[in-house]
Amino acid sequence: MELLEGMGKRTVVTANQRLAHHLTQRFHAWQRRQGKRAWESPDILPLSAWIERTYEEAALDGDKRLPLSPFQEQVLWQRIIEASPYGEGLLHAAATAKKAQEAWSLLHAWHIPLESLDAHFSEDVQAFLEWAKVFRDRCQQEGWLDTSRLPEAIAPTGGMPPLALGFLETTPQQQALFQRFGIEPLPLPAFHGAPLRVAMTDRLRELEAAAKWAKALIEDAECPPSIAILMPDLPSLREQVIQCFDEHLCPPSLLPRPVHARPYNLSLGRPLGEEPVVQSALLSLRLLKGLTLEETGLWLRSPFLGEGETERLERALLDARLRERRISRFSLHDLLEAASGSCPGLATRLRALSPPPPYRSPRAWARAFDALLRTLGWPGERSLSSQEYQALQAWKGLLEAFSGLGGVWPSMSLSSALAQIEHQAHETLFQPQTPEVPIQVLGMLEAIGMTFDHLWVMGLDDNQWPPAPAPNPFIPLALQRRHNLPGSSAERELAYARRITRQLARSAPRILFSHPLRERDQAKRPSPLIAAFPQGTLSLGEAPSYPALILRSRRMETFSDVSGPPLPPGTLVEGGKDVFKLQSACPFRAFARLRLGATSLARAEGFNAADRGILLHRVMERLWRFLESHGRLCDMGEEALGAQVSRAIQEAVEETARRLPHTLTPRLAEIEKARLFEQVMACLALEKGRSPFRASPEVKKTVEVGGIAVCVRADRVDVLEGGEVVIMDYKTGEAKIQHWEGERPEDPQLPLYALGMEGVAALCLAQVSQEGIAMEGIAAREDIIPRLRAIGEEGWQAQLKRWAEVLERLGRDFQKGCAQVDPKDAQACRYCEISTLCRIHER
Ligand code: SF4
Fold first, then answer.
1. CATH top class, domain 571-830
2. 596, 835, 837: which to mutate for ligand 1, most atoms within 8 A of CB?
3. What is the dihedral of CA 242, 245, 247, 250, to 10 degrees?
């Protein structure tokens, strides 16, 4: 009560923004309880904001220095680091700049002079010293003031000194500031609760229990209680928390574009650059440098572009078509060409874009980026949700901050401008404003100074709490320990975590501390800091999740439909050999792929195994069209044969390079040619040892089996002197004759060919791989091809009959429209592209 009265009369500075918001809300609620209809807003703000405001109002001795924004400061550090001799070896100068900026800030907060750092301690310290001196000199020359030195540049101007709340620990710099201004730290809240410790099976159960616990508290209370759920690892668990809490507390949030407000609020936010509307803006800017295939897909399907809704279908189809081109990057020009015709709205907008000049000031870049986004119709034609609108405003703020970089970086290239914008968008945490909600999900430190009706602090196993020390790499460790800097030692972290735990245990009348018993395969113990609290149990009763309730209350009429409409007998089916292979692997897969046309989007891949297989087939086809027979092969000298092989390879590679110009690059083509030459020559050497034959490459046939007709094409058909036929198939991947066997053969391609031709006496797989060349197959007699398994004339006829029966049944099933989700085995589903359609994983 006293605190609330005090807040109405004096400025209150808090340790963080969330506490300032919490106190403001409490003050308003208190005023409403007093029956007031209007009152003056309290002046409650985080200490950092108060310092900035005070500097603007009353700089010490008329200090005229220009305060740098955090963005400007970070860019200045980055520029200094990149220009130093150490900059060249750095992979990520922005991340180093962040650590250097943090070291600079720690030194000032703990009043440690730069000169006390020992340059001989390590190369990191030496580098930091050089950067810090340049930073200090640069600020002095330009009349800039950085955030770390701002507290020392303000002076009291009279009036009531502020009150301070939420400072569990103050730095020497803050202590001096408080003393100079007469700032009174208020005591932290101290409920006399009786905290309990509970053990949970694992983190997921812990999260679920917390969601159910909060739900039960809200449902049982007459007026909504204030509930807080805290965890030390909230940043890494953020998405899991949202998923779990949405499911239990607000299932409509799981729908796209939810209209229901969540009853909980999650602190820390997520990077602004991950908000879909900002992600779309960043991709649009990156378009100037070209987009990868995946980025192109994301960008095309974005609803935040002009005509993104009306051309949605056309753009999705364009994405699918672009994927088939096997190009890994698309320029603005490529996209304009691709969009012309199918997506007129997009094409018009792309046409209106012009290439930017190489260098500009940040302000000019900001204006150009803004204009580009407007030309592309960003943020789209539909009305934005509250969160999207707030993200849009945050983006505008970011662009504004970027345009202010001119002082520290007068002229930058497009690449640098894009890199800075993207880096900052991913560094800026976006926390949308939400109406007052009963449940707060917070990090550990954020709750210091707040009070709640119920508090649950979770995830406190001995690995998480106290946290491991994380000293700054640019300040010598001994110096950090001497000044007891944050993260400098295990003892320091333990003592600080103990103070936090003690304070949290006094922040609500009812408190639970929990810890998981397992994480993956590891057993977990409670943190020693909560081990002394009495152990309790949590009785949440039977509280099924909303999805479980919906499922339980369902009224279902079961209708088993495992067949599509039959095909007229004799229908010529597209898909060739794949019809039987897919029907054998899984009837639903065959139906979905070949009759519904269901397939997955192509992925960005380089020259893959399938491309290598096709290339080999093209070479062999050319070669055997020339050779025609075993006799000619044997008659050719090695040199002439080698020249012919090289010619066939050259032609096939050129043809493939025309088809895949971005995939089969000249360098890769040379490697492929050398590899192919070795393999083809080895293959021909093996063929020389066979009995004489005449060869016909790429023989096409239409085969009718089981009421359907399919077109097939054998890689090669050899006719022996006695008139018997051998069907050859080149394989660059794994293939075995066992794949022809059984009621559901894995790959019945060659048996299918055997049914479509007269006089077949052998089936042969010519395996061409890195491991070597081999021939495998089944033959009626040993003398047909010596290496094949000979099963005798009778056995061969019986085998042909078995294959005919199996293929007849598979063909008949396909013709009848059999479409059961019935995979042959787990392997059949492993590389299946339509598992999301059959939903096998939901069974
Ligand atoms: S994932 Fe398995 S069950 Fe589903 S269609 Fe593919 S093979 Fe059949």
1. alpha beta
2. 835
3. -100
753 Cα: distance to centroid of ligand 1 (angstroms) = 26
Helices 93-109 and 123-142, packing angle to 10 deg: 80
3-state secondary structure of 8: helix
CATH architecture of 196-269+436-523: 3-Layer(aba) Sandwich (3.40)
Phi, psi of 732 (to 5 degrees): -105, -15
Helix (H, G, I), strand (E, B) or coil at 359: strand
Secondary structure in 3-state letters for 305-342: CCCCCCCHHHHHHHHHHHHHCCCCEECHHHHHHHHCCC
Residue closest to 434 by CA, chosen among 219, 250, 303, 276? 250
Q: What is the pLDDT, as a whole number, of residue 61?
A: 62
Cα 579 to averaged position of ligand 1 atoms, centre (Å): 15
What is the CA(68)–ligand 1 centre distance, in A? 59
pLDDT in tens, 495-523: 999 999 999 999 999 999 999 999 888 89
Q: What is the DSSP letter of 360?
A: E
Question: Quick check: 607 and 663 in contact, CB under 8 A?
Answer: yes
CB proximity list for 366: less than 8 A, separation 6 or greater:
399, 400, 402, 403
Pocket test for ligand 1, best of 589, 591, 600, 822 (most atoms within 8 A of CB): 589
pLDDT digit string, tens, across residues 286-325: 999 999 999 999 999 999 999 999 999 999 999 999 988 8
